[in-house]
Amino acid sequence: MKLEAQKYADTVVVAPVGRLDHDHCEGFRAGLQPHVDGAASSGRGIVLDLSGLEYVSSAGLRCFMLAAKQTGGHGGKIVLAALRPVVAEIFQISRFDMLFEIFPTVREAWARCPRRHAAAFDRG
């Protein structure tokens, strides 16, 4: 699975592309792990831009849950943004929309960040 990451101030936007199912979970976890470690060690945030995610299986949902648990256990935070309709429906059916803050756009996810973070995002 392809993951693109861009850092703005002390928050990183990570954008997975493709399908997150059993076959791609290990690649997703490996690519996300350095960002999760950074957020967990410093209390930073991660915005997952899911606009490029075509599908997520139960195995993929587990990856999200484990990353959020690891990050949140140390004061960090993961928020989700820009879910495609099929992915949003999967999150609703599985009730994962109750576990994560979900925003319609990445920019709206940044609205919850301190002003300097939003300014860094706008420049990026």
Distance between the termini: 24 Å
In angstroms, what is the radius of gyration? 13 Å
Largest sheet: 6 strands, mixed
Count of discrete alpha- or pi-helical segments spanning 4 or more residues: 5
What class would the helix/strand composition place it in? alpha/beta
Residues in β-strands, percent? 25-35%
Question: How many beta strands in the DSSP annotation?
Answer: 6
Whole-number average pLDDT? 88
Percent helix, as a range, is 40-55%
Q: Regarding quaternary structure, how should these chains be classified?
A: single chain
- Tell the overall outline: globular
Descriptive report:
By secondary structure, the chain is α/β, with parallel strands linked by helices. The protein is 45% helix and 27% strand. It has helices at 25-42, 58-72, 85-93, 106-110, 115-123, and strands at residues 2-8, 11-20, 45-49, 53-56, 77-81, 102-103.
Task: State the gist of this model.
This protein is an alpha/beta fold. 45% of the residues lie in helices and 27% in strands. It has 5 helices and 6 strands.
Question: Which features would summarize this protein structure in a list?
Answer:
single chain; 124 residues; alpha/beta; 5 helices; globular
